[in-house]
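Deliverable D4.2, example record:
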Amino acid sequence: MNYLDILQDREIVAVLSQIDILKQAEPHQYGMLHTLATIGYAKQLAKCFELTELETELLLIASALHNLGHLNGKSLHAQTGAEMAKSYLKKHNFDVKQINTICGAIASYMGRKNDNFYDNVSACLILADKMDFGTTRVKAHFEPLSIEDKVCKKISYVEVVRKDNVVQLMLGGKNVNWNAFVQTTVYSKLYKCFETVCRKHNLKFVVKVKKVV
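Output generated by the structure prediction step:
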């Protein structure tokens, strides 16, 4: 079973759909759309930080399962999600070591402790989740939005690329107030997390604005 199989599993689809229903009064996506976006960013990060084939597959599985805990509420959702994922993976006969890697990443994907960043799968899941903050995350017609969400909603292009020893986070969007954006907590957390991971890999981290027509 790989991450694509998981995304098509009726059990997982049902959980993510239920999360969308539970979160319908909130401005952000938490279910399938956010999961798919996180997987897309995880693929970029795996390439950027040169994860092995196995690490990449475990990262994509963790990305597919990382938000299951929201079914039981936001409080401690990372920990409860890791428990749900562990039960699911055991049922599908995953190797114990692989389960520990996947569930460890899910339990720590909020990135609140330095130790959370020193496993490649965990570090990339933290970044992938935080890269989904703009147009794809903020619900299209939700009102009212916070000032921060209004700024983030204009970000329509997010990509991470590596050139030699430099990791570049490319951001773009129409009519974005970039001064306001860099003052958001979203940007602050994303920047700090990228700096931490790049420091571990002896890489330089920069943010660049890409013109979006």
